[in-house]
């Protein structure tokens, strides 16, 4: 974006020099949620800004923050290998912040040799009743149901070994909700959780900040791709013109999908250019983007947006169906990170690995809440885009 090129040119140059020192570049295009086989993160010392953010968000010492970042990198690299090793007995996996290890769930059918191989690779192993295929099939059946507005969403929770259906607390006793839950339980193993409020998208009217605009809607840039940037689909339809923070023309929405999905991409021209950087807004240093390896459930993740700037939390769930008032959106990742109106489309990043673009949530950054993002690799695959990386 133009302001990065003009006002942050000194910072960008310094980051570029740092990025050339032993850093690997990862290919970006991948199918579904699988991490590209060559996208394994390498060992790197975290920036002082990122360590500060980890200490602030999670109450860690600097040594603990460094250890957690390295443990998450190892877990991210191990997860796709663990899935292949477990095969049909795979029951899901998640990062355990207390142990600093990836936990891999397997069904009783997993052989002793399989369990030993997982442990040798560094994973903790938990035996569960239901495999991931059964749980995914149950969620797919629930996706076909018509959900009342008080049902916030549903996702497979590997640690709970069930499909978790989230219901707005005030609507738990509603007859339509109870009817939906009865149908959901018939589809497979279901656990019900309550939440304070229903999710909503996070677009906003034209106000100040560091945004892009389409019509009278303000949203946030997600990640640079070659030829443009990716963002949320609810921010604009294909063909809609986009203006930058200074009101000048950037480009147009080349593709957009919402609901069902919540992703889009915008071409960049007219003196604008792309850089593989996520703004830290002075809270942390601007972050380089080096790839798109998928962080596991339980890993730390941070979000950058034009309203509330930089906030961090953890990955709570993957492949969740979120029931917005405009319609259900599928294959979303749920996080404990807060967000507010205007943050839509902004970057979710774990370390230096792009994760996705902000879609919606509930709550705010004063009282807390939860936020969902559309995974980046799905967007890249859908539009045939290549992530701009160092």
TrEMBL record:
GO terms for molecular function: serine-type endopeptidase activity. The active site is at 234 (charge relay system), 262 (charge relay system), 344 (charge relay system). Keywords: Disulfide bond, Hydrolase, Protease, Serine protease, Signal, Zymogen. It comes from the Bacteria. One of its GO terms (biological process) is proteolysis. The keyword Membrane does not apply. GO terms for cellular component: extracellular region. The keyword Disulfide bond applies. InterPro entries: Pept_S1_alpha_lytic (IPR004236), Pept_S1A_streptogrisin (IPR001316), Peptidase_S1_PA (IPR009003), Peptidase_S1_PA_chymotrypsin (IPR043504), Streptogrisin_prodomain (IPR035070). It holds the Pfam family Pro_Al_protease. Disulfide bonds join 219-235, 302-312, 338-365. Residues 130-170 form the Peptidase S1A alpha-lytic prodomain domain. Residues 1-23 form the signal peptide. Belongs to the peptidase S1 family. This is Serine protease. It comes from Streptomyces phaeofaciens.
């Amino acid at each position: 974006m133009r302001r990065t090129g003009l006002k942050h040119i000194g910072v960008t140059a310094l980051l570029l020099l740092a990025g050339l020192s032993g850093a690997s570049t990862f290919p970006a295009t991948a199918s579904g949620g699988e991490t590209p086989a060559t996208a394994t993160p390498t060992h790197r010392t975290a920036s002082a800004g990122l360590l500060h953010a980890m200490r602030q968000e999670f109450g860690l010492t600097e040594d603990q923050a460094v250890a957690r970042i390295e443990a998450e990198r190892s877990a991210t690299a191990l997860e796709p290998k663990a899935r292949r090793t477990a095969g049909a007995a795979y029951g899901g996996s998640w990062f355990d912040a207390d142990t600093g290890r990836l936990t891999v769930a397997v069904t009783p059918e997993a052989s002793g040799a399989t369990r030993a191989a997982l442990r040798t690779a560094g994973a903790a192993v938990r035996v569960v009743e239901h495999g991931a295929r059964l749980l995914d099939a149950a969620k797919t059946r629930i996706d076909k149901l018509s959900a009342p507005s008080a049902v916030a969403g549903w996702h497979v929770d590997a640690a709970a070994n069930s499909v978790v259906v989230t219901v707005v607390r005030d609507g738990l006793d509603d007859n339509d909700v109870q009817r939906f839950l009865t149908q959901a339980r018939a589809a497979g193993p279901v656990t019900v959780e309550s939440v304070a409020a229903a999710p909503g998208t996070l677009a906003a009217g034209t106000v100040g900040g560091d945004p892009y605009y389409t019509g009278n809607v303000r949203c946030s840039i997600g990640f640079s791709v070659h030829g443009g940037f990716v963002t949320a689909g609810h921010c604009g339809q294909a063909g809609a013109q986009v203006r930058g923070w200074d009101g000048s023309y950037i480009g147009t929405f080349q593709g957009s999908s919402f609901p069902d999905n919540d992703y889009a991409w915008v071409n960049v021209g007219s003196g604008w250019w792309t850089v593989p950087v996520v703004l830290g807004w002075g809270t942390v240093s601007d972050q380089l983007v080096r790839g798109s390896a998928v962080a596991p459930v339980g890993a730390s993740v941070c979000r950058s947006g034009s309203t509330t700037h930089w906030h961090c939390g953890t990955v709570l769930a993957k492949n969740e169906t979120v029931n917005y008032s405009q319609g259900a959106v599928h294959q979303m990742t749920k996080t404990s990170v807060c967000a507010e109106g205007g943050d839509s489309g902004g970057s979710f990043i774990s370390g230096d690995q792009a994760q996705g673009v902000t879609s919606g949530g509930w709550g705010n950054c004063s009282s807390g809440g939860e936020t969902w993002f559309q995974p980046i690799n799905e967007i890249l695959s859908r539009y045939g885009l290549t992530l701009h990386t160092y």
